[in-house]
Design goal:
Blueprint: H1 8-18, E1 24-29, H2 36-43, E2 49-53, H3 59-74, H4 87-96, E3 103-108, H5 111-116, H6 120-130, E4 137-143, H7 146-154, E5 166-169, H8 175-178, H9 190-197, H10 201-206, H11 213-222, H12 231-240, H13 244-254, H14 260-267, H15 271-283, E6 287-290, E7 305-308, H16 311-319, H17 324-328, H18 332-363, E8 373-380, E9 385-392, E10 397-404, H19 413-422, E11 432-439, H20 445-453, E12 457-461
Helix pairs in contact: 3-4, 9-16, 9-18, 11-18, 16-18
Length: 463
């Protein structure tokens, strides 16, 4: 599973930037394990490229390593001497090498340079303005620590603000591309695998395709020696330096406390003191604040609920962290039994809703291509919950969806139940209502006959 999967839009964007006559400065960032380095390596194949990975060493050691790398790239042995040049002097040598040939300068883990020397973004800004901006060069600055990358390269206060010609925030792989990771995917349940690994390429690659999902969990997550056993702790420590409040917040949300008030109460903290932490977790794409899709002012809505967006992090806090004492004593069989009892009903079924939302936004109602949905998500009121509601601009069309991850086929009674719930949603009189039903196990004959007789009822089997 080391072959490159997806990322077609990102690759095309990079190719378009490379084809420009002008110099390019692209910021590529995203959380750890998301596949940034793999994307760069795929893009730079057969191109004239200087690639450097910064480390958590001192600025001086990074500069020395950079100088030696430039020496190898330019075949200039003088740079290997004991004399350590300044950054602008090293970049000058790099820039003057093959001046008529388009080249790429890719600096990975860029944030460590700014961490080691606070003034480095200013130093690089001068190098860009006075040297690189007028050259036949494409610069890619890549980083993992999202907060640090935004601060150093994208924020208004950054010296590099306004210099970039483009940016890519790399997100997780969608379910539509998930099966491409597994050449022999017919032997495994992709939905359940996705529910554990999510769309993080590193997790997918580690999670070897075993037909028994629970054996795969035991080998790749529950074993104390496995890479993923303490992954959330490592991720939070790397991003924030300390896990305390962030760890507690995610744990509390995973336990079912989704309203701000309930989260604050569970932690014994004031709501106002939590907002900055929640915002930071949102920026890292670990959680999201959801409101019913028809809310006109989402930011001000009092119906906001927080949800963990990373499937693996959600799984870990539900099924690994609460049973750490058993796992430390290697009583894995007890934990596996608990997971088997709850995995599909309390975890996979909710992930399935997200898979259906992705499908609806990408595919729409295939037989009605004129319907362009601008948003899709959950809808709820005090007494009613609807798995999925997709809306078009000006609410001309509303698509009500039910997502069923069940062992048996979906019967027609689900349609009547959804139709009744749809009455709770206030829509303009001109809105056309559609109903779409997603099932992992297909549909009964009665349901298929009903869909065949009504043009606003649609069936989709996602398995």
């Amino acid at each position: 599973m080391t072959h490159f999967v997806g990322r077609n839009k990102e690759i095309q964007f990079l190719e378009d930037e490379f084809a420009q006559d002008r110099a390019s400065l692209v910021i590529l960032y995203g959380r750890r394990r998301i596949g940034k380095t793999t994307l760069i390596k795929q893009f730079i194949q057969e191109k004239n490229v200087f690639y450097f990975v910064a480390t958590e060493e001192s600025e001086r050691e990074n500069r020395r390593n950079f100088q030696h790398a430039v020496s190898d790239f330019t075949h200039n042995p003088l740079l290997k001497k004991d004399v350590l040049l300044e950054w602008d002097e090293i970049f000058s040598v790099l820039n003057k090498h093959q001046p008529d040939k388009k080249k790429i300068i890719a600096i990975d883990e860029f944030q460590y340079l700014g961490k080691a020397r606070v003034s480095f973004p200013s130093i690089f800004q001068k190098i860009w303005d006075q040297m690189l901006a007028e050259s036949r060069v494409m610069v890619i600055l890549c980083g993992s620590l999202v907060g640090m990358m935004v601060e150093q390269t994208l924020s208004y206060s950054s010296p590099l603000y306004g210099r970039r010609t483009g940016q890519i925030r790399l997100d997780q792989i969608g379910f539509q591309d998930y099966g491409l990771f597994f050449r022999q995917s017919e032997d495994i349940n992709l939905i359940e695998y996705y529910a554990v690994t999510g769309g993080v390429p590193k997790y997918i690659e580690l999670f070897s395709p075993d037909p028994d999902i629970f054996q795969a969990m035991e080998k790749n997550i529950l074993s104390k020696q496995s890479f993923l056993f303490e992954e959330p702790v490592f991720l939070l420590e790397k991003e924030f330096g300390e896990t305390g409040t962030y760890f507690s917040l995610i744990k509390t949300i995973a336990a079912g406390n989704r309203k701000l008030g309930k989260i604050a109460s569970a932690l014994g903290l004031n709501q106002s003191g939590l907002t900055k932490y929640l915002k930071t977790l949102q920026e890292l794409d670990l959680i999201v604040r959801e409101v019913p899709v028809t809310e006109k002012n989402p930011e001000k809505s009092k119906k906001g609920l927080y949800r963990i967006t990373d499937n693996f992090i959600s799984f870990w806090f539900k099924f690994v962290h609460p049973y750490r004492s058993y796992l430390e004593m290697e009583h894995t069989e007890i934990v596996i039994k608990k997971i088997k009892d709850q995995f599909r009903s309390s975890h996979v079924s909710f992930v399935y809703e997200d898979i259906c939302r992705q499908w609806l936004m990408q595919q729409g109602l295939g037989d009605l291509p004129h319907i362009q949905l601008i948003q899709a998500g959950r809808w709820w009121s005090r007494d009613v919950e609807i798995d999925l509601l997709g809306i078009s601009e000006n609410l001309e069309h509303a698509v009500f969806g039910e997502c069923k991850y069940t062992a048996g086929p979906v019967d027609a009674d689900v349609y009547w139940h959804l139709k009744e719930k749809a009455k709770s949603v206030i829509l303009p009189e001109v809105s056309k209502k559609h109903y779409v039903f997603f099932s992992q196990s297909g549909f009964t004959e009665a349901m298929m006959n009903l869909a065949g007789s009504q043009d606003n009822v649609h069936l989709a089997t996602i398995a």
